[in-house]
Amino acid sequence: MRTTLLSVAEKRRTSGLPGVILCFGLWFTGMSTVLGQTFTKDSYFIPVSVDGQAIDHPFTGGLYNPMHQFIDIDADGDLDLFIYEYADGNLFFYRNIGSPQAAEFDFEREPFEKPPVYGWFLLADVNGDGGLDFLTSSEEASTLSIYLNDGIPQLPSYSLWTDALLDSAGVPVYAENYSIAGVCDIDADGDPDFFSLNSSSGTINFYENIGDATNFFLAFRTSEWQGIRICVGCGLSMKQNRSFDSHGNGAIHFADVNTDNDFDLFYGDLFDPGLFYFENIGDSTNAIMDSVTADFPPPYPVNTGGYNQPTLVDIDDDGDPDMFVSVLFPLIRVNNFYFYTNIGTPQTFEFQLTSSNYLKTLDFGLQAAPALVDVDADSDMDLFVGDLDGHVTFLRNGGTPSQPAFVLEDSAFISSTTSYTYAPTFADIDADGDMDMFLGHFGGKIEFYRNLGTPSSAQFMRETWTFDTLTVSLYAAPAFFDIDDDSDLDLFIGRGLGTISLYLNDGSPQAWSFAFVTSDFLGSSVGYNAKPHFLDEDGDGDLDLLVGSLLGELRLYRNEGPPGNPVFTLVTNFYANTDSLHDAAPAMADIDSDGDQDLFLGSYRGGVEFYRNGPATSVTDQDPPEIPRSVHLLQNFPNPFNSSTVIQFSIPSHSVVDLRIIDLLGREIAVLVSQSLPAGHHSIRWDASSMSSGTYFYRLRSNGHIITRKLLLLR
Questions:
Q1: Mapping DSSP to helix (H, G, I), strand (E, B) and coil, where does residue 576 land?
Q2: Which of 6, 217, 297, 702 is 20 to 30 A from 471 via CA?
Q3: What is the pLDDT of residues 16-75, one digit of tens each?
Q4: Do residues 585 and 573 lie in contact, with contact meaning Cβ atoms separated by under 8 Å?
Q5: Parallel, antiparallel, or unpaired for β 632-633 and 369-373?
């Protein structure tokens, strides 16, 4: 029975296998290339616009719990940005390629090797050498781990100093997981002191640095610093019109908000929608914290779901601190990175909300699942994305086959109040020449939308079918493949338990009939939330299988059998060397028409990452499919390497480029490029067959930018 008509063009919307041999081979992990293919995460290659406005960082993967820190990691005089995501444990880096007065952030995937993060992180110079060291909790206990920066300002390099720093009494310094600690010179004696939170009592631990600027030696002083107790409706944290007293994980931040040369305290708590502000009414050597307000900033205070992380930095270099607030409360899925401009004076602050989405990225909330299909027959691939809240978003490709450009046309192309966690796929199930739509969802069913339009003007109509009433598994994720080569499409369904079900189509292309074969097609589970996607990955004319999973593995099973007799072999658990993304949902297509399959990867964070496929072996000056936004220097590949490696870079305009190899002593080893090049993406292979094993640096100079990265040659 037909119930709903959906038109892409008009944007109308409403609410034992017979004859088949299955064989699975041995596997190995850790590959980042398959058949010579290399994948590069490229967040900016495909422009995306919403309501006529360009999305600044379209394919960085979304923001869910964006714990952040602004700090000048590369010593170039402006503030860079680090983002740590609770959801999948990734630490992301955005380099400031603008200026101190006009920040412009550019995502870089591997600017340097980053230490592991457990619950929170903080960069601070704890040994007085001018480099920014890395602080976090230990993996198994609420102790303080420190990684010292023994690199150079342009290229940090971290090594573990201690995974449980001891105080002067020999007791591990307490640093609670998932509560953000604070470091500042609270007593103006020239060295950093340390503060951590007790979420069970809402109090603050104070550790005084009794060493010096070069010797981070902490003495525990009190677990109730300044008598502060973070509590709704009590003590120094008295609040009105809030009916419960509670406290939980929190974020500590020190900043001199009124430029009186001492540190004030800002605090966000798990259970509070606002921010606490304590003014230091003492001085730089003797702090006296006065509870000013629990509703900061006046007159329009922060008001979110809770667990607000405040940071005050002078992002525009006008002499007064501006404010950023990350919303770490898990139920806030989008619009969770606030920016407040300080329009007051250095002595009298006045914060004005400028944006609730400072890093504009393509974000669908949670559990984004992409699908690519040419829905309008214009020879390029359009993008559909399902999400946790029962929506499917439609983004039309308004570019060309080689220069894609997405425009968001409908954020509720499908919208349901009863189905959740949509996973879309498309297939011409009725062999009428156009693509039909299928939506798996959390409830374990598959919804069917027949395309009653034409290849160039699709009209999707909801129809009842077998899988409306048959519950396959929680988190059903459908995919189609003619596994028995009988000219009709068989149905595969990824299951919440990590296996894949197979339903064989023993009908005809025009009158399908699905028969259950197995609930464990692969013979093993990929963990949880299997998301299958079929593609011809190796270009041999048959379809291989790519499977995403809950814990971020992306498994490739290569089909090495003849048509009708597939032989699937697990090649790798980590296809394309992607970020480890929870609830990884793959979709692949040749989005740039260069003859290979590119990867779109949805995740629990609610965004989509894009990995462009294609090795590069020589300097190229061909016209690029797009003009880069800034100077980029990518991590060489492979790395580590033996004999030769490829270095890729991009420049936004025609300019002189200088790319050199230097050793650990700063000596020039090789000049790879020293010439004028046009705007675009370039690459060059370095032949290091005559070099000794060891660590080297490669340095790019162009357009006033100097970027340095590290590479490792192993014999």
A1: helix
A2: 6
A3: 343 333 333 333 323 334 444 689 999 999 999 999 999 999 999 999 999 999 999 988
A4: no
A5: unpaired
